[in-house]
Design a protein that fits this description.
By secondary structure, the protein is an alpha+beta fold. It has 19 helices and 15 strands. A five-stranded mixed sheet has the order 1-3-2-4-5, with helices on both faces. A three-stranded antiparallel sheet has the order 8-9-12. Strands 13-14-15 form a three-stranded antiparallel sheet. Strand 10 and strand 11 form a beta hairpin. Helix 4 runs parallel beside helix 6, helix 5 crosses helix 7 and helix 6 packs across helix 7. The two termini are about 45 Å apart.
């Protein structure tokens, strides 16, 4: 039987519409019941492409005994963080304040008036790696609510006060940005830079598109150090497994410091920002590899995320049929079979993309570019143009074979802010490519402009509620939620 989520448009909420958990969407009905019955709220926040959200659903929310424990003692509420970034931000601040870290799925326990008093992220079905089982957590919280209610109320009040204080002390400034501050920002990015692998931080490692954009803008003013940091980061990410070497686009983040092993979901906002950063890298340096990466990313957005009404879908899932990354990884035998037994391209492809019998991840290979065309030309004693041509044909054959595999699910909702970012990337590329010296690049301008115009028309017409205000999300002919600041700002930027 379907629960209350069956009437929603969010793919994430609909994924849970047949759980035995008596889920409510966030709204007056759930909050009124919690206050009326004086019950604590269990708030679960996630998103459709989230691997660990799927895991916790299979392990706990589809389990009848766990559902019974939730339904008997709590008012369970499920929230799509992408539809409600306002709620996600507030309660993520609470989880970080309580535990020192955050992530999704987010699992919180609230007083009936919404104050968080206990929480975390993923909880396993049995005790594991120092984490209690989810049903143990449910039992302990229910017992504490009955027997130590005052302590939980006090904890909720303290957490809210701490978040209020954090927000209230955020400094505000006015006036021009001092040039010394910009130089200091470059120095700080340099000090934190991973010179070995590019980018910032270790594992998990996220693409920092806005830091790269800042460095490129500093390079426009002649800062050679800033340019070196930006180029090293763009090159390392484009060569890594985080970049889909066959289909184009970038996965959300790398689970290691080397950009090799991604968390396989692909998000519209990441790809919009990274495509634009790569495009600006080409405009600044003239290096064709940057525009090639920008184009394969924009082409992936246009091919895989375009919705029937001309917007762009939010994301592509990390999992295929419940297995993370199944669509994207290869064995050496699979590659050889696609290229043809005895094909002279087999050693070239294996050398280019790091394909070996043992694989580089769980016995399979995540394709990454481990050798450049120049290096391969020396190794195989061939002209670079021949190397590039043979690899292009091999990629086409591998891509066709991959397309016949089961594919990850797509979250089809159109988010105003994320579409604004993509709109900016497509419009920027259309403008810049229209004056490119290479006629093949110029030929792409009109298509990108048409895509931008089509999306802009959707965003400025159908994405409005009956009162004329911009909505947050559009799916199945319905606007959901009111736009937040990022929606207005990003859409304005794209327009």
């Amino acid at each position: 039987m379907a629960n209350r989520l069956a009437g929603e448009t969010s793919p994430y909420l609909l994924q849970h519409a047949h759980n035995p958990v008596d889920w409510y969407p966030w709204g007056a009905e759930a909050l009124d019941r919690a206050r009326r019955e004086d019950r604590p709220i269990f708030l679960s926040i996630g998103y459709a492409a989230c691997h660990w959200c799927h895991v916790m659903e299979r392990e706990s929310f589809e389990d009848a005994a766990t559902a019974t424990a939730l339904n008997e003692s709590f008012v369970p509420i499920k929230v799509d963080r992408e539809e409600r970034p306002d709620l996600d931000q507030v309660y993520m601040n609470a989880v970080v304040a309580m535990t020192g870290q955050g992530g999704w799925p987010m699992s919180l326990f609230l007083t009936p008036d919404g104050r968080p008093f206990y929480g975390g992220t993923y909880f396993p079905p049995v005790p594991r790696h120092g984490m209690p089982a989810f049903r143990q957590v449910l039992g302990a919280v229910a017992e504490a609510w009955r027997e130590r209610r005052a302590e939980l109320d006090d904890a909720g009040t303290r957490i809210v006060e701490a978040i209020d204080q954090q927000l209230a002390t955020t400094p505000a400034t006015e006036g021009d940005v001092d040039a010394g501050l910009l130089r200091a920002a470059v120095a700080a990015l340099d000090a934190a830079f991973d010179a070995t692998n590019g980018g910032w931080g270790q594992a998990p490692k996220f693409p920092q598109a806005m830091a790269i954009e800042f460095l490129l803008r500093r390079a426009l003013d002649g800062d050679a150090d800033a340019l070196a940091l930006a180029r090293r980061s763009l090159d390392a990410m484009a060569a890594g497994g985080i970049h889909d070497q066959l289909g184009g686009g970038f996965h959300r983040y790398s689970t290691d410091a080397r950009w090799l092993v991604p968390h396989f979901e692909k998000m519209l906002y990441d790809n919009a920002l990274l495509a634009r950063a790569c495009f600006h890298g080409w405009q600044l340096t003239g290096e064709t590899r940057y525009v090639a990466t920008a184009i394969d990313t924009l082409d992936w957005i246009e091919r895989e995320l375009t919705t029937a009404d001309g917007g762009w879908a939010a994301s592509e899932d990390a999992d295929t049929d419940g297995v993370e990354g199944a669509t994207f990884v290869w064995t050496a035998d699979e590659v050889r079979e696609v290229l043809g037994p005895g094909s002279p391209d087999i050693p070239l492809v294996e050398a280019a993309y790091g394909i070996a019998p043992g694989g580089n991840w769980e016995g399979r290979t995540i394709l990454s570019r481990v050798a450049t065309d120049e290096e391969l030309a020396r190794r195989f004693d061939l002209p670079e143009a021949a190397i590039a041509g043979r690899l292009e044909k091999a990629r086409a054959r591998l891509s066709a074979a991959r397309a016949r595999r089961p594919q990850p699910a797509r979250d089809d909702k159109v988010l105003a802010g994320w579409n604004g970012l993509a709109l900016a990337a497509f419009a920027d590329a259309a403008s810049g490519l229209s004056v490119a010296a290479d006629s093949r690049l110029r030929a792409r301008s009109d298509g990108y402009l048409a895509a931008a115009i089509r999306a802009a028309e959707l965003l400025t017409t159908k994405m409005r509620a009956s009162d004329g205000r911009l909505g947050r999300s559009w799916k199945d002919g319905r606007v959901s939620g009111r736009a937040v600041l990022e929606d207005h700002a990003d859409l304005a930027e794209g327009l």
